[in-house]
């Protein structure tokens, strides 16, 4: 039977599940261990005493089956990781079995009601026809009731977006919610037998041959208590901005999302979600290379002037479902303070107001460098304004908000 070292297990299992699996093993929760030919079985206990049955193939290819729901989301859940750690530490604790053990039955899929999403879509259509100015307390209360129904039906992420919209009903949040509800309803109508299960193919359209540089790494919180960490990328091939996000409950301990600072990512395979820029990206097969001597010069060269940006924003707002803000890179040659406000100055002398309320002064001073300003553009108080995210220059990225990249 194949033996595994702890390093082998760490390479097999996703980081968060690996650490929790080590903790389970250290606390003695791996019980009733056994082996038959190239198969392992064990019972892994939870804190409340309930157990999950784990079945592992450890032949040429390591595969796991568990009676928990987490195994639907990852090849190796916490319980499978705990058994693998126990096997790597001392295979002698696994007694020999006289017959082939039965594979554990998978946990039942939660009963998810697609009608809850259909109700949300009908309500959003009514809101769109009446306009946000007519969104009264009665409609907001109905949205909050629908939020509870969506959570009960298993649509946790969609429920979080409903809570965000009910708390702050902006056109951007409405568009985001419409796209999310449409995608959830389409998924639920494809095949009811598989609804609620994790698909073998991630959602979105396949995309290949990207060359990405991370230009911002940030974190925010939703109204539903979730934490969202995101990496924003610039594609040197197409000039488009993409974003990779990681969402997890705010009140639980999770590993931080990985930052791709100072790496040149060559994407051989990925999937991109429909919608407006920056489109959400799922990285599948990526070759990581150290950033070359040219650094971020390609990003700076691809940035646009203030005048060209105003024209692009005008076209953006003509789209009926376009979000209120547009993410872009603006070429900078300097900055100007006038009337107590900060302005970006491009190479032709055009000015762009910068919204920097709430940003520490030390960060602002550090980020005032020539290069390209990565920002969200919004039209407010009769003028186009920039909400800065980071300054990109040939030597690296300087954050205005989020976490430092260098």
Structural overview:
There is one protein chain. This protein has 406 residues and is an alpha+beta fold. The chain has 4 domains: 6-96, no CATH class; 114-194, no CATH class; 205-295, Beta Barrel (OB fold (Dihydrolipoamide Acetyltransferase, E2P)), CATH 2.40.50; 298-399, Beta Barrel (OB fold (Dihydrolipoamide Acetyltransferase, E2P)). 30% of the residues lie in helices and 32% in strands. It is built from 10 helices and 18 strands. The strands form 4 sheets. The protein has a 5-stranded mixed beta sheet with strand order 4-3-2-1-5, covered by helices on one side. Strands 7-8-9-11-10 form a 5-stranded mixed β-barrel. It has a 4-stranded antiparallel beta sheet with strand order 12-16-17-18. Strand 17 and strand 18 (396-399) form a beta hairpin. Helix 2 (15-26) packs across helix 3 (78-89), helix 4 runs antiparallel to helix 5 and helix 4 packs antiparallel against helix 7. It is globular and about 80 Å long.
Radius of gyration: 25 Å
β-sheet strand percentage: 25-35%
Order of helices and strands: HHEEEEHEHHHHEEEEEEHHEEEEHEEE
* Individual helix count: 10
The CATH architecture term of the largest domain is Beta Barrel
Helical amount: 25-40%
Mean pLDDT: 82
Largest sheet, in brief, is: 5 strands, mixed
Structural class by SSE content: alpha+beta
CATH topology of the largest domain: OB fold (Dihydrolipoamide Acetyltransferase, E2P)
How far apart are the termini?
46 Å
Structurally, the number of domains stands at: 4
């Amino acid at each position: 039977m194949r033996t595994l070292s702890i390093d082998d297990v760490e390479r097999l299992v996703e980081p968060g599940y690996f650490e929790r699996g080590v903790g389970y093993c250290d606390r003695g929760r791996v019980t009733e261990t056994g082996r038959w030919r190239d198969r392992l079985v064990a019972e892994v206990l939870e804190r409340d005493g309930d157990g999950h049955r784990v079945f592992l193939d450890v032949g040429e290819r390591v595969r796991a089956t568990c009676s928990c729901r987490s195994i639907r989301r990852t090849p190796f859940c916490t319980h499978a990781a705990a058994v693998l750690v126990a096997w790597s530490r001392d295979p002698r604790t696994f007694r020999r079995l006289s017959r082939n053990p039965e594979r554990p039955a998978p946990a039942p899929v939660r009963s998810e009601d697609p009608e809850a999403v259909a109700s949300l879509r009908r309500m959003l259509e009514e809101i769109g026809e009446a306009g946000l100015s007519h969104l009264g307390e009665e409609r907001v209360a109905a949205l909050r009731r629908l939020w509870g129904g969506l959570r009960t039906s298993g649509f946790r992420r969609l429920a979080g977006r409903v809570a965000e919209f009910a708390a702050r009903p902006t056109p951007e949040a409405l568009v985001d919610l419409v796209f999310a509800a449409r995608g959830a309803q389409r998924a639920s109508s494809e095949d009811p037998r598989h609804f609620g299960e994790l698909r073998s193919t991630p959602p979105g359209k396949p995309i290949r041959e990207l060359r990405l540089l991370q230009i911002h790494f940030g974190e925010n919180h939703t109204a539903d208590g979730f934490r969202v960490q995101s990496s924003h990328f610039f594609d040197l091939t197409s000039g488009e901005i993409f974003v990779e996000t990681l969402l997890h409950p705010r009140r639980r301990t999770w590993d931080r999302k990985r930052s791709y600072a100072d790496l040149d990512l060559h994407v051989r395979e990925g999937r991109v979600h429909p919608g407006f820029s920056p489109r959400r990206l799922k990285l599948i097969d990526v070759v990581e290379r150290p950033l070359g001597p040219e650094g971020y010069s390609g990003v700076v060269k691809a940035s646009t002037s203030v005048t060209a940006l105003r024209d692009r924003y005008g076209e953006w707002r003509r789209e009926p479902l376009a979000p209120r803000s547009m993410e872009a890179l603006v070429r900078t040659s300097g900055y100007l303070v006038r009337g107590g406000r900060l302005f970006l100055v491009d190479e032709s002398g055009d000015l762009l107001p910068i919204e920097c309320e709430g940003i520490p002064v030390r960060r602002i001073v550090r980020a005032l460098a020539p290069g390209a300003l990565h920002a969200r553009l919004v039209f407010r108080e009769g003028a186009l304004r920039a909400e800065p995210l980071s300054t990109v220059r040939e030597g690296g990225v300087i954050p205005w908000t989020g976490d430092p990249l260098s």
